Amino acid sequence: MIALLASVFTVLLGSAVAVWRERTVRRRLDRDRKLEVYGEVHDAAAEIWRVRVWPAVPGDLEQLYSGFRLYVNRAAFVVAPQVAEDLVQLSGAVKQHLALVAEIRVTSSPGRQDAVDVRFREAFDGSRKSLAARMDRFVVAARGELEVSGRYVPVRAGDDAVGSL
């Protein structure tokens, strides 16, 4: 009887350990996939944040938006509920920023050294700030969901970089 109980206990313990290992591996793979997808979304948004109004390159805005949408569509399969709203808000900010850049290109011409027309400068700077803030909120939400410890510090070196430490 004791041998039978010991055998049953060993089998159950072995099964429990196997299930635990499988869940741990699956959770790690899910986390790794989310980290990759969230990073792609952030990188695509950062590329749009860095887009220059002038010189205008035909089709560049459509190409940037298409790339961003590709990553957002990938994220739809793995995004957690606590990150979804920030992803939607980021998508809206990206779309608004690109629409403003397109409007500036259509309704004005380059200033000295390809500067943005003074009529649009405040709106353009505000759009970039809004997009950067949405990117930061998305990163904070994604880090929270991925249980990344430590404080998020955005890195912005002039107009060249958007990212995190």
**Shape label:** elongated
Work out the count of structural domains: 1
**How far do the termini sit from each other?**
60 Å
The mean pLDDT is 84
What strand order characterises the main sheet? 1-2
Strand proportion, as a percent range, falls in under 5%
What is the H/E string?
Answer: HHHHEE
Approximate helicity band: over 70%
* Regions with little confidence, pLDDT below 50 for 5+ residues: 161-165
What class do helices, strands and sheet pairing give?
Answer: mainly alpha
CATH T-level topology: Four Helix Bundle (Hemerythrin (Met), subunit A)
Please, how many helices? 4
State the CATH class.
Mainly Alpha
Architecture blueprint of SSEs:
Elements: H1 2-49, H2 60-75, H3 81-107, H4 118-145, E1 154-155, E2 163-164
Antiparallel strand pairs: 1-2
Helix pairs in contact: 1-2, 1-4, 2-3, 3-4
